[in-house]
Fold:
Amino acid sequence: MSGDPDVGLLGPLEVGSLYGGGPVSAPKHRHVLALLLLGAGRVVSIDAFVSELWDDRPPASYPTTLQTYIYQLRRRPLFGSDGEIVTHRQGYALLIDQRRLDFVAAEEHLRAGDELAKARPEEAVTCYERALGLWRGPTLADVSCGPITSAAAVRLDQHRVTTQERRVAALLGLGQVTRAIAETKALVIRQPHNEVLHGVLMRALAARGRRYEALDRYSRFRVSLHEQLGVRPSLAMRVLHQRVLETDVVAQMSENSGGRSARSTLGALPPSSKPPTAGRRL
Amino acid sequence: MHYYILGQLSVRSTLSPVSLPPKPQQVLASLVVNIGQVTYVDELIDEVWRDDPPASAATTLQTYVCKVRQLLGRAGHGTNWIVTRPQGYLLQGEPSDVDMYRFVDLVEQARGRIEDEPAAVGDLLRRALQMWRGPAFGGMRRGLCLESQAERLEELRLCAVEMLLRSSISMGRHSDVINDLRSLIVRHPYNELLHGYLMFSLAACGRRHDALRVYGDLQESFRNGLGLDPSTQLVALSRELLAGSAISLPFAETR
Structure:
C-alpha cells in the first residue's frame, strides 16, 4: 500500500486536507462527493444523482445545477495530482487510486485478517485493528443521505461490526481471554441480538471460570430475542449453551479444536441484521 | 487539566464531583472519553437521548456544551478547553490527562510482563487499582457510549485484580493472597477461577485439607444453587489434591 488512505467516508467526509482544498462545507457538495467516492472508478449516472439529491423529484433546472456542483468541485484541489472528476455521456466518474479510499482499505484489512486468521492469528488481530482504526466517527457523519448513500452506510457499518466480531474471536482464539471479555461486553451493549458476539462472550467467560455469568448472559440473550424479535437462539448457540452447562470443552479452549469448531459454527451464522422471519418461531 | 471518571466524574485534582445537571454531565463525560478527538453532535445526541431525541435536541445540546464550557472555564483559568468543529466538539488534551487511559495503560503494561516480571507487574497493578474511587462514571446518567466504556473498564478492573493475584501466587506469596481471595469469593461466589486460585494457594501452604474443603463447598453451592458441576479444571485440581501429586494453577492457559 502506498500510504495511509487520505480520502474517506468512515466518519465525516474527508478530502483534500493535504492539498489546501479546505473542508467542503456546502452540504450538496459533500453529498455529490460522497456519491462519487462510493462509485469511485465507475460512472455515477445522472439518474443516481437525481434520486440522491432530489429524491427523484428534481427541479427543471437540475442538469445545470448538477453541472455547477461538478464545476465548483473540479476547481478545488481536492485530490492532489491523482484524482479527477471526468464527464461521461451518462454521468460523472471520479478517477482516483482506490488505495486512497478509507472504506476500500478497511475492506482490504478485513480480508487480509481473515486470510491470516488460522495460521497467524496475532497478525490477523493487527489487521482487524487497522481496519477499525480507520473509522474517525459515525460512517458518513456529515452527509445528508439519500437511498444510495444510506444503503452504503448500512453496508459499511455492517463491515465494521463484522470486523469487530472477527477481532474479539481472534483474541479469544489467542487465549487473550480477559481482553476478549472486556471488548465484547462493550460491543454487545450496541448489539444486543448479535449471536456471534454473544457466542464469543459466553466462551470467553466460561474459559475464565465464569460459567455462571456465561449462562446468565445466554438466558438474557434468549429472553431478549424472544421478546423483541419472536425468535429463539440458533442451533449453534443452543449447542454452546449446552456445552457450558455440561462443564466440558469450553474450559480448555485456548487454541484447541474445541475452540475452533465453536468458532467455525458461529462464524457460519446468518448476520444479526437478518430479518426476524428468517429465524424459527417459538 | 485532569479528568477523573473511575468513580464520580470530576475535573482537576480536587476530586470533588462536578456540579452539572445529569445531561450536561453526560456531554462532558463523552467529550472526556474522546479527549483530543472530535465528538460528533450525532454521537452526543445518541448518547443523551438514544432513539428518542426531542426536535430541539441540537439546540439543547448547544446549551449543554455551553454549561460544560463555563464549568471548565472556571476550573481552568478561563482557557477554552472545548473547540467547536464542523458537526462536533473537541476537548483539548491528551489521553494521559484522563485517569481511565492511565489505568488502561498500566494494565496493558502489566499484561505484557506478567510471565517474566511478577514483582514489577504487582507494582503496576497496585498503582492501577488505586486509581479507582468507585464504579466507573459513578452515579451518572449513561447512554450507550458511556455504558460501553463502563462495562469495558469494570471488566479490566477485575482483570487487573486477577492478574495481581496471579503475580503474587507466582512469587510464592500464598498466605498473602488467601485472605484477599476469601473476601473476593464472598462477592463472586460462583467464580471458579478465584476458587481455583484459593485451592492452589492453600495447598501450596501445605493446607491440602482446607483446599479440598473449598472445593467441596463450591461443589455443593454449584449443585444446590445452579444445578451444575464444577468445571473440569477444578475437578482435575481436586483429584491432584486427593492423590497428593504435583498441582498446577488452574486457568493458567488463558490471560
About this structure: Chain B is about 60% helix and 5% strand. Residues 240 and 247 of chain B are 6 Å apart (CA to CA). The two ends of chain B are 35 Å apart (CA to CA). Residues 144-170 of chain B form the longest helix (27 residues).
